[in-house]
Design brief:
The protein has six helices and seven strands, in the order E-H-H-E-E-E-H-E-H-H-E-E-H. It has a single domain, classed as Rossmann fold (3-Layer(aba) Sandwich), CATH 3.40.50.700. 31% of the residues lie in helices and 19% in strands. The chain is α/β, with parallel strands linked by helices and 179 residues long. The longest helix is centred in the middle third of the chain and has 13 residues. The chain has a five-stranded parallel beta sheet with strand order 2-1-3-5-7, sandwiched between helices. It has a two-stranded antiparallel ribbon with strand order 4-6. The protein binds iron/sulfur cluster (SF4). The site of iron/sulfur cluster (SF4) has 13 residues, from helix 1 and helix 4.
Amino acid sequence: MTKPKIATTWLEACAGCHMSFLDIDERIVDLLDAVELTSTPITDIKEIPQVDVGVISGALGNEEELHIALKMRKQCKILIAWGDCAVFGGINCMRNFMDASEVLKEGYKNGVSTVNPEGIIPGGDVPALLPKAIPIDYKVKVDVYVPGCPPDPDTILYVFQEILQGRIPKVPVDMMRYD
Ligand code: SF4
């Protein structure tokens, strides 16, 4: 049987969701036997090929992240929103109380530890901020929601095992938090 191909990416996020994947511990050996990991921060393969399952951690906060999310959606059959940032927007949404221009000023000019005498706010090479940080399903269709900050490793394993059984997983309520 062909192994299902999986791609993962992290957008506006910390590394916690991917660390939780590694926290599956030794059970990851059997999992990696059953699937083919393609583009992920773990393999460091950047180009997303056509895959069976795409996994996104992190919210959408800038144009580059939006581009990657749209690409992942196009390349995968089943899209998983992985972790509170992808599902709800998470901690990234703390910036939504101010305009994107104010966020840049706070980040590049006004921060208490910032030294920027010329007051330059980079543009061009730095992807433009979206007006607000948003959950990924504001822009792409999501098939499976896996909340948690981060999702518990047992929950992540459950989701992949369900997919390997040919089912679209629905995470039970009692698995929606980190134990
Ligand atoms: S959900 Fe939590 S652990 Fe996952 S990327 Fe967001 S802040 Fe990090």
